[in-house]
Q: What sequence folds into this?
């Protein structure tokens, strides 16, 4: 008789467990993760981060970058550095992977800011408000890849190529 009661109790417990599991699989439109649509607060922060900031040079050694005629050889070297050190976390276009995609970066950031973010990552994430806001969205600190200044400049040239700005940084 006790075995029958135990089986009945166990059956009810299992049924309740499955009912709860099924209920939790319902509509989750208010939750965000991965590729889901961000909520209003996240969307507002993304808009703030994506504001055009041609005045911000960032924190670091780069204070002025001379942008001359487009240099395809530099862009090719920059693409190579991107493929080796950046593409595991950043896409060229589309949604962010771990970090943001690079499409349109030449329209949102100065070349100085980009180079300082690449070369002086820790200080940028700690002191630059735009970088801090990006960290709040991405939730993962960009690791320092020990990119030398010439390679960072080549990456800037590659970004000019992918954004189609071969005349200047923003044209």
A:
């Amino acid at each position: 008789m006790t075995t029958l009661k135990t089986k009945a109790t166990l059956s009810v417990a299992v049924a309740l467990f499955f009912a709860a599991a099924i209920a939790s699989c319902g509509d989750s439109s208010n939750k965000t993760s991965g590729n889901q649509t961000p909520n209003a607060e996240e969307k507002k922060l993304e808009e703030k981060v994506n504001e055009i900031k041609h005045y911000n040079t960032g924190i670091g050694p780069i204070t002025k970058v001379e942008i001359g005629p487009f240099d395809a050889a530099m862009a090719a070297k920059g693409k190579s550095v991107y493929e080796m050190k950046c593409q595991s976390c950043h896409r060229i276009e589309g949604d962010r992977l771990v970090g943001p995609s690079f499409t349109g970066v030449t329209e949102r950031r100065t070349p100085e800011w980009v180079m300082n973010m690449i070369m002086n990552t820790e200080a940028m994430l700690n002191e630059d408000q735009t970088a801090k806001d990006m960290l709040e969205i991405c939730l993962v600190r960009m690791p320092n890849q020990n990119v030398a200044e010439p390679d960072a400049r080549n990456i800037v040239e590659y970004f000019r190529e992918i954004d189609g700005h071969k005349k200047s940084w923003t044209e």
Remarks:
- The two ends are 84 Å apart (CA to CA).
- The longest helix spans residues 2-24.
- The helical segments are 2-24, 40-49, 72-85, 105-108, 111-119, 121-127, 129-138, 149-163.
